[in-house]
Write a structure and sequence with these properties.
It is a single chain. The chain has no helices and eleven strands. By secondary structure, it is an all-beta fold.
Amino acid sequence: QVRLEEYGGGLVQAGGSLRLSCTISARPYTIYRAGWFRQAPKKERELVATIDWRFANTYYADSGMGRFTISRDNVKNMVWLQMDSLKPEDTAVYYCVADDNLRSISSTTFTYWGQGTQVTVSS
């Protein structure tokens, strides 16, 4: 069983930064990818970024390109999302995800989801 727990969300002013953290509880060598999704009010959930668990290759969707940075520590089983130059439109619930199947780095299919953490960016 894989469990994910996110933390680090909160309220930040536009232009500020926030770092989301996620702890992944899983047996060794079972995770292939991790990533972050987000869902804004009245919008569909969208991929932000993914990272290969072994080689740390990364993929950024349009929503995460340029201002967000995903990273991981595959010994501590943690993944982070550094968000800079935040905008009000980044306001959303952010979800940590993990996958125990071998898929493309850009695949939006993930097996495990966290409960989400709220990020609110004020103007």
